[in-house]
Records
---
Amino acid sequence: MKMKLATLALGAALAAGPALAELTFPSLSYRTGPYAANGIPFADGYADYFTLLNERDGGIGGEKINLIECETGYNTEKGVECYEATKGSGALLYQPLSTGITYQLIPKATADGIPVHSMGYGRTSAKNGKVFSHIFNYPVNYWDGASVGIKHLLDLNDGDLSGKKVALVYHNSAYGKEPIRTLEELAKKHGYELTLLAVDHPGQEQKSQWLQIRRERPDYVLMWGWGVMNQVAIQEAVNIRFPMENFIGIWWSGSENDVKPAGAGADGYKALAFHNVGSDFPIFDDLKTHVVDKGLAAGAGDQLGTVLYNRGLYAAMLAAEAAKTAQEIHDTSNITAAMMRDGMESLEITEEKMATLGMPNFGPEFTVTCENHGGDGLGAVTQWDANAEKWTLITDFVQSDQDVLQPLIEEDSAAYAAENDIEERCN
Amino acid sequence: MPEQLLWGMEVFMNGLMAGVLYALVALGFVLIFKASGIFNFSQGVMALFAALTLVGIMEGRVPFSHLINAVFGTSVHHFGWNVPAFAAILLTMVVMVALAWMVNRFIFRHLVGQEPIILFMATIGLAYFLEGFGDIMWGSDIKKLDVGLPQGINGFIDEITFNLLGYGFFIDNLDLWATFIAVLLVIALVMFAQYSKHGRAMRAVADDHQAALSVGINLNFIWVMVWSLAGFVALVAGIMWGTKSGVQFSLSLIALKALPVLMLGGFTSIPGAIVGGLIIGVGEKLFEFIVGPMVGGATENWFAYVLALIFLVFRPQGLFGEKIIERV
């Protein structure tokens, strides 16, 4: 009897398994918990892009894609469990979608030889590929974000910020503190006065911080927020009548979820971005034809074109392009995690390539090398139109101040290498 | 008047307003603990669930629409109508009363006579159940809540303080309304407890379950009533906090703001919840204003819990709690 049951179970598992799937991409998503509203659109965009490739192109290089979704609830322990549970499935790449999970996976994934892509989050100095062999954070990191934000302020002030007051409202966590060093260095260079305003987790009560802003009247406010902190900060800014066009959030403070609760008052609020917004791109026609109309859209299928859906779509596109590069380098369609890493290390995103994919001007052009796992640090600024209820990209993708950032990255990665006895590569 | 003093006064007033909002959450805890000895871990989630239900009804959303669509392949999301705020609040209260009945019928009736820690654990389970249930019922997107309460700076206070003191104070209209509503709520609760038949029965149950039973008080009815009242308080708190930040799952974390208030005010006193809330609100805001800049800020949560801890050491029952006396 036991034997029969075991045979049945094995048969069922084989029947249910993705027999044709060759390229496995785990998706560490969070569709539940306090941050689900942000996790769902990203996970949907990530899944829909791979579904599109399977349906329209037959996968990547003829190999079908097997997406394994694992729920992390934006919880670091669960994220690590997801990694451990899926790494044996032939996983080619992890996008942890959480700085906490990324930090935990840096040593684990490096030891297991599986690449990690923390796009716009995670450890900034992982940009240094000489130290972080399996960690990638292209096309931008938090320090790039801080610099692109200041560059935008420079543009608004004819290149001169001397005497201006800039306040940073930040989540009182490792994530929120990321831009401080960069902003301090840039303050020395450009002569602005920096005020730091920490907000306790989760950020539902920020009266003290915004009363201080009302008293000190900074010219500009930058924000490194997440979850409910964003909505409350934007509402408080509206309440004290802070000019919204002078309030700029990092890309994790710049989705529809963050501005809609404040209604018309949020009009003019700005956020940094590393990919384009909206659904006015040819790829959305393909998504409709091959994914949505066939009833294959992930989740409720109601997130297409939102900021975080586009981010998931963009992340999947970068993963697929790296897989294609790996297939070309190793002349095989059935790549391994080690080959995938090689593909990521040789990834080149050009405007021509994005246009071919139906995503013209969707993100910045950049190149990844053995030494540089972070791309060229190009970011842009978006602005919220409350009447039309849509974000608009209002600047080109501009490069961060590499003269200031590169030494900081070298310093931080060298400290990590010394702590962990890592020998530099790419020599 | 020195600038620092004026700013301090503004911070003090905003602290009072913040304290009222904390007290609104704490009230729900007090009601249930007072009547049944249960520390209701799910009070924050009840506020979330109430606010989700309110928005869902107001916007005419179809409950469980994702589940229905997934099972039956349909695409229903909205009924196609909107419900006025007042009617939606009444309907939400009906849902909260039904929830109170179900909580007692399916959970606490089976746990009569169990240790307090068991009852507490049951409320943890209830919190997780309600959070997931709310997600399935109404979806996890962030919902804008607008029941018509005004938000933003109060122009009258701004102008009058500017004319008198040369500096216009910032007071949020929503906070003023929260204070007004909280005062009404406390008066209504105290009147109910003191002068109504069921209120007196509730107090009798709070004093001694066995004695209350022996004089014919229906314990189940009283518990359903108390959980319904806590549901109503949760709805009010959910409206206030949800208006500030949108209705989202982080709303359940507001319970964390109520704990120091309870530690300070006592778990069994309605006025204690209010006074505790005000002390915590003012204390944390002034501490952040005076000490925060010296230590890098973000001191509010820390200060609230440390202050509550100090009170606990010297007065374990809280400011207004009943003294714990155990006789051999």
---
Amino acid sequence: MAVAASETYAGPTWLQRNRMIVTPILFLLPGLLFFGLYVIIPIFQSFNISLYRWDGLGEATYIGLANYQELLTDRNFEISLWNNVRWLALYLLAIPLGLGIALFLNQTVTGIRVYKSMFFFPFVLSQVVVGLVFSWFYLPREGLLNGVLTLFGMEPINVLGDPDLATYGIIAAGLWPQTAYCMILYLTGLNAVDPEQVEAGRLDGAKGWKMLWYVILPQLKPATFIAFVVTIIGALRSFDLISIMTNGGPFGSTRVLSFYMFEKALSEFGFRMGYGSAIAVVLFLIMLVFIGYFLWQMWYDEREARR
Amino acid sequence: MRSITKTGAAALAATTMLASAVSAQDLSGELRIISDMSNPGPRAVMEQLAADFDAMHPNLSVDLTIVDREAWKTQIRNALSADPPDVVNWYAANRMGPFVDAGLFMDITDWWEAGDYEGLDSVRGALTQDGRQWGIPYTYYQWGVYYREDIFNELGLSEPETWEEEIANCQAILDSGRKCYTIGTRFLWTAGGWFDYLNMRTNGFDFHMQLALGEVAWTDDRVRETFANWRQLIDMGAFIDDHQTYSWQEALPFMINGEATAYLMGNFAVDQLRNGGLTDDQLDFYQFPAINPDVEMGEDAPTDTFHVASGAQNVDAARAFLAYVASPEVQTEINGPDGLGQLPVNANASVADDEFIQQGFEMLSENATGGIAQFFDRDFPAEMASIGMEGLQEFMVFPDNLDDILERLEAARQRIYQ
């Protein structure tokens, strides 16, 4: 202290004056750097590669938009795209299912924590394990599903071997852990529900569905938003389940865009980097719709909160 | 990374003489090998091979990395382009194509010319592209029908040699409440084996190769004839149900339990069938029967290979290693019953005393006059193979979709071979 006091005071340095700006930038810098290097730049590289015919090893030939033109007539691409739509639509079922279970478990009974953790259990499992368990469940002869069906005198079905059913079979497997995830989000959300508002609603005569719709759900809005975000993201990265359960088959009927991209560009027989990149670009554009919505929503919420 | 130390195994190495241009003392530095022989049996063979070669060359250290066989199929691209090793494993024929075209495999025609690989002349063609040689084979194995001898005896059947006998046999098997063939098409390639054989028997080896080279349309009537023959079996119900759900290993129990009597497979299935509890009295092998008497028999016999990366640092050592692997003594050793249990590529090596290897060797050397193919996914270019096998699987489940499938394959052919 004595030393510092003896020095003449020359006013704040540039760094001191601007530290409110410099500090956040310094903290953000590593993140921004790697985000740029591993996310932003590769996006533009994909755009670029999608204009070439390239096997990933030799020389690349510029072919303009020919890859995209081929996509338009590629039936496998169409199937994959529709499967993506199915995934997006049906995966959202995890939200009401999760809410239902959360409401059901949101009570004080002895051992409720045990029940909660058992319902949460599938989310802890790796997707690969979930995929394996469900593919055994669906096995045409030994599987549990067909065991139950024959018990009730019904015809056994080969879910994963039937091109019309296989995708739904995989989505059902995916819903199992995803429902658990949404449930845990809602359970924490329910903890934050204001008991006074519930009380006030009850005095006004609200109960059952009305109570849920007008009093509880509005307060769960943040949880619903997060559940929506993670479910959409989950639906778009359904790669591992498909790879484990059907490997894209039978005859390509369960592929989604990410799987098709992998198959075309990177798999054992995939040597079409350009075509794979074109698929990746389409997938990116689809994701961009959701990303745009999420960002807008978050920005909007923050602006509302500041008012 | 796994380094083999210079100890042990010197005894075996000492017995092995090399016909190599480079003498043992000259080799020094490090020889880096990446192998895909990751299954337990082959892995031991490869480790022994590296250790022996290391022990032979006091100044050379062999650095062996073993990569999972399936993973290697995609990793090889990165491995060869960034920091390439000296020697790698791969497959013969068209599967080499992308790497040869990209200049990632070294042209070793001179080594072939110099007599490094005496006794390998018969397999040279599979390693040839653009008139040059790009590697050496180290093992191959036959395909054919492995069947339950005991069930055949019970039903009074004999090994079929013609298509009529085949159909009659199959009918008898079906009447006994069993399926004729087990198969698991989940990973598609097993259906490729069926197509190879049916097409080679219906239209001959040369036609099959023309199709692989993209010179014949998939919508050609001759191709349709192949599918018509296939459909005969499918309509009879010859194949197990739900095969699109099983891998080839998951289809094995059907044969082991006696629910299906035969399996069109490569010789590697024998080990699994024996492990499953079948004795050699219950198990036998026959060549896929003739369909069209006018065509010579062609066979599938996939060959596994070693290649030198074009970016290899220690070319002398790589050359000596390849010559070592191809020598008759080493070929006998690594393909023997304690090794891979497959066929040696060197004509001067001896074939293991095993019922199936002997039968396969006899078949390939005496009754494969049409020619020897690699396999559907090695003879056809990668993309045609993957689209093709998917179509074959669909045909096996929904034979009525044939027209649609063939048109799709034809459209793919016109794009891929242009």
---
Amino acid sequence: MIAIIDYGVGNLFSLKSSLAFIGREAVVSGDPAVLRAADKLILPGVGAFADAAAKLREKGLDDLVREEAAAGKPVMGICLGMQLLFERSFEYGEHEGLGLLKGSVVPMQGVIPADLKIPHIGWNPLIFRKQSPLFKYIKDGDSVYFVHSYYASGCEDSLIADTEYGAILTAAVQKGCVCGCQFHPEKSGDVGLDILRAFCETEDFE
Amino acid sequence: MISKRIIPCLDVKDGRVVKGINFKGLNDVASPVDLAEFYSRAGADELVFYDITASAEGRRLFTDILCEAARRVFIPLTVGGGINTVDDFDRVLKCGADKVSVNSGAIRDPSLVGKAAKLYGDQCVVLSADIARIDGVFRVFAKGGRENTGMEAIEWIRRCVGEGAGEIVVNSIDTDGVKKGFDLEMLEAVCKAVKVPVIASGGAGCIEDFITLFKTLPGVDAGLAASIFHFGEVSIPHLKKTLESAGIPARTVKGE
């Protein structure tokens, strides 16, 4: 069973629906017992990094995610959920993340040309950087849907795909059983569903 | 490079899409969920569900339909029509909407945009403005374009962006239904005034109109239309391919 971690951040209706659509009933829960019993975890998130990190900590779910990942349980972060997997974020100050992946979350502002709009909203093609089980059903150049103003940097270690928006921005990461998408697979049509399907099916991420 | 978005708009009244014809593979043209699925498969980048119901019963039906659409269609969904309070935002977001479009509701209560942006984030709040030229000045209209508010449109849009509107839909009343192309002059004025995504609406009659739109105004992010898609005058896969051939970044989908 897949568990979507509910820690009071964001709307989980579409994510749960997308998993149901590909034949995976997911449970949405913030209960540690349920999350520990799940085969795989999805860490969603929208909003501000500091706020989300604090909510995760308050519920003691930061340690839970770290422990489960260390024990080899596949974890997928989506959007802000992906950003939380890194060591730190520089969104309004400096804030500590889960530290499951090497790298920092930094603003796009000042990195992309000033005439480009922030947030980066819309469909943009993936540029594959490394083969990953997540890409089993999709191909280089397939488009996915992004909504974000910050991106992961210094994450060559786990980088599997970029996208281009005036600069090269991290789109997807995976290292062992820990992976993440900056875009929204649950809003990226068939390509997104195929990424979720691959995540659900994969037994061995090594 | 980011794609230009193509957005069909579905007007829903009492649970049914108001206009439409039969497409191959689509049995019930008036079913919002079936039509949404059809457009998603055809490569629509986003969908707008516009609730034009007046009754409470119709509103409940609309909410049910939205939930069903969000269970079957996995592209961004924007909901508009009858959004007057933060509770209305809550109602449609819980059903799987990603963005909420406000129009008359923001005119009636200008604090609505700011309140919603604080709660749900700027990216969730879309300002939809119905605009017409009155004595050479762009004016904002309320109540589906029936009532001149007297407000200057660019000023209104700037103010709403300042409050947190994350995207602007510009509906030109002057070009709407004429099918001779988007209102480039009006759109240019909006693009110059704000730095958030601008969605063009009103006036598209053929594929060429979308090419002209994106070639002339690189600042426009998306084109929205209803009847030309519903009546099959413009097919989305064909539109996308033509955009791509013209050097405009467009997303094409598998199997098309």
